[in-house]
Amino acid sequence: MATVIAPQNHNFSIKNLSIKSLTLLGFGLVAFPLVIALIFGASQVNALANSSAGAITDIAKIFDLQQLLKSHQLRMERSAAQYLVLRDPALAQSYQQQSQHIVQLTAQLTATSQDAKLQQLVTHYSETVADLVDNIMPTAAAKPVTDSQILKPLQLKFHALSTIYEQITQRSNELNSLHISNIRQAAQGLRDIMMQSLIIIPISLLIAGIFIVLITSPLKVLTGSIFRLHQGDFANEIKVSGSPEIQEIAHALESMRMRLQALELQKSSFIRHISHELKTPLAAIREGTELLYDNSVGELNAEQHEISQIIKSSVYRLQKHIEDLLDFNIVLDSTSLQDSAAIEIKQLFQQVLTDRKLDIKRKKLTINNTLEPVAVVSNHKQVAVVIDNILSNAIKYSPNEGIITVTSRLVNEQVMLFISDQGMGIAPDNQEKIFDAFYQGPPPEQSPIKGSGLGLTIVKELLLRLNGEIEILSAKNHQQGTTVKITLPRAYQLEGQT
Fold this sequence. Notes:
Elements: H1 19-86, H2 89-112, H3 116-142, H4 148-197, H5 200-231, H6 244-293, H7 302-332, E1 340-344, H8 345-355, H9 357-362, E2 366-370, E3 374-379, H10 380-397, E4 403-411, E5 414-420, H11 455-465, E6 469-472, E7 483-488, E8 491-493
Parallel strand pairs: 2-4
Antiparallel strand pairs: 1-3, 3-8, 4-5, 5-7, 6-7
Helix pairs in contact: 1-2, 1-4, 1-5, 2-3, 3-4, 5-6, 6-7, 7-11, 8-10, 10-11
């Protein structure tokens, strides 16, 4: 059967991208803001580190220059005092050298610092040193040491020089504190920026979640379609939008669905046709056999009576096989899966019990029915087949004058049916095999009709389609009878009944 695939829409859509493209795009969109945040954070940290390193270097250099400046000032002042006492030309030369060093240091200090006030103080300091060299020392060389006009102005100049140095030190300390404060503020600002950039993480997770949904949503739809095919539902068209790979899988599943649906219809039609063709002559054979067996057309001798008994048993067996074949057709009929309605379990059981009334009466069985007033939303025909097969097995394996107990329990919107008999039970080794097609366990005593081995297979398959379960609860001593537990979903208590 050819499958016609509708032409694809070539308009761009993110859903139409391949899984590989979607994965790469999602990874890129998730990684891009993280990479941007990482680069930005690294640049900010690098800028802060460079700024801090530069500030620390300037502070250290200014501090070293200040220490050298103070040292040369003390040497200059000591040289001046010694020269005034000793009048040694070498001391005068040392005085000149120290003043030159101080001028060089002030030039370096002015170049290092960018602060106008500090530069002004350093300039003032340098001018004061130059005044000491140009005006005070020449006068001191020409006059006696005791002259107050020489000694006192020199002391005043050096005192003013120390005062200016203290002002330079104070301003330098202020600048150092300002640098430290700026570094702290920059670090705090960077910390705030990094904390704000953490919002990128939930945004990235959101983007990742969106792409996960884009990739997995079509897969979930495909999984649901495959599960419906597994249950035998071939009526609903499989149509999934998504990446090209997903659409290819959907087209393949749709082609398989159409093929399976055609085969399903052919199987159902064949089984219905052959069952009808078998039942028509079988009815005539059964009626003729009954007439012979009842001596309605003349007395039969012992051998003829035995032969008619064999024919009668074989006819009943053939009739049971045809009934099982019709039940199996219900399993194959996927259209019946959609026929769900509310089913009263107690009423359905009574209908099944009525159909088996002759079998129950023949073996003089007692039915203890304590079903609760519950209902399930399911397929009436299929649930009836399930209960009928379990009940017929209980009747078949029960001893004469035995008791069959039927109970129910409603738990979490699920109804559990328990059907117990007093038959020979099922050995533990056989409890899994009984659901295999055509498997037949030990036959019950005094049973004239042999089963087909399809009954429990049909029950298992139907319950699988109905999302139900079946379980064998035989006692440790399996010869004490068998209890079959059937679980059906979508159950509820009937209103006004307890």
